[in-house]
Amino acid sequence: MTLYIRRESSKLWKRFCSEITTEIGLLAENWKYLLAGIICQYIHGLAAKGVHYIHRAGPTLQDLGFFLLPELGQERSYISETVFTSVFVSFFLWTFHPFILKSKKIYTVLIWCRVLAFLVACQFLRVITFYSTQLPGPNYHCREGSKISRLPWPKTALEVLQINPHGVMYGCGDLIFSSHMIFTLVFVLTYQKYGTKRFIKLFGWLTAVVQSLLIIASRKHYTVDVVVAWYTVNLVVFCLDKKLPELPDRTTVLLPVVSKDRTKEENHKLLNGNGVDPADWRPRAQVNGKIDSNGVHTDNSMNGA
Predict the structure, then answer these.
(1) Which of 41, 88, 106, 202 has the smallest number of Cβ neighbours within 10 A?
(2) Which residue in 126, 120, 245, 219 sits closest to 177, CA to CA?
(3) Residues near 91 by Cβ (< 8 Å), separated by ≥ 6?
(4) pTM (global) more than 0.85
(5) Which amino acids are annotated catalytic?
(6) Where are the membrane-spanning stretches (predicted)?
(7) Would residue 271 count as lying in a domain?
(8) Dihedral of alpha carbons 273, 276, 280, 282, sign
(9) Does some domain include residue 50?
(10) What are the counts of helices (DSSP H) followed by strands (DSSP E) for the chain?
(11) How far apart, in whole angstroms, are the C-alpha atoms of residue 79 and residue 82?
């Protein structure tokens, strides 16, 4: 048992080190895109804080979802955030699964470049919409009489550049459309394309529906905020996915090209498993029978063997 654990631990460590080397190379090539995406997240946070300065509390607008779903109230408002946090953490951990699991279909750096591109595009549209028209927040802390329904004007330039640490829970004015649904739907759509477990895909869509209902029930957003998010995020992801370069297929097997001009000594080294020129490696699928130098499969029965 101890020997088995040691052997598996050794394999896991080698796989982890190999993955680290690969991801560092990808990070060196794509760090600008990741940095730009992270900076845009910061700008989005500042924009959400900025609209809180000009938010005006008022009567809650008439909303169909509010009639159908009872309000969770301040005591149970954590339920919606708990579900969202679970979705975020689960997706984050999944993007790093190639470091420890054998099933490797994605590269962590490349998948986050893609996810951030989706998020930035959706958040750009979101900022335009909630600055175009400010609606009175439906949440308890945004209603008339609440002391935090409107932020006091900043006193220093540094205060303007600071992200409100309580903005996710106590923001007001950044309504159309829901940021929580942007993240949830982008994560679900990404796993839908690159994930491998069908039941997780179905569970992800079910969670997105439950998250939508909880957002309305907790009065974080109006129903229109959630509805607009559903079709906007799906359309943005659909359009961008056609424009962005596709992720490389990690399932491709690399086999050496055996040239007719290769010397007997080089062929002997190749048969013994020794290294050859990396330039002679190219992707090729493994099939039964023989594979000629052009990668064409030949069946023995057809050659009279």
Answers:
(1) 202
(2) 126
(3) 187, 190, 191
(4) no
(5) 180, 221, 225
(6) 78-97, 109-131, 168-191
(7) no
(8) positive
(9) yes
(10) 10, 4
(11) 5
Tokens of 157: 């330039």
Exposure string for 202-231, b = 16+ CB within 10 A, e = fewer:
eebeebbeebbebbbbbbbbbbbbbbbbbe
Q: Tell me the residue range of the domain where 155 lies.
A: 9-243
Domain contains 248: no
- 114: closest CA among 194, 199, 6? 194
Question: For residue 98, how many other CB atoms are within 10 A of its CB?
Answer: 22
Two structure tokens written together for 226: 């959630």
Total structural domains within the chain? 1
Q: Does residue 149 contact residue 142 with C-beta atoms inside 8 Å? A: yes
What residue spans of 54-156 are helical by DSSP H?
A: 64-68, 78-94, 108-132
Q: Are 262 and 235 in contact (CB under 8 A)?
A: no
- 279 lies in some domain: no
What amino acid occupies position 175? L
Other CB atoms within 10 Å distance of the CB of residue 48: 22
Helix (H) or strand (E) holding 52: helix 2-53
Residue 91 tokens, joined: 């997706």
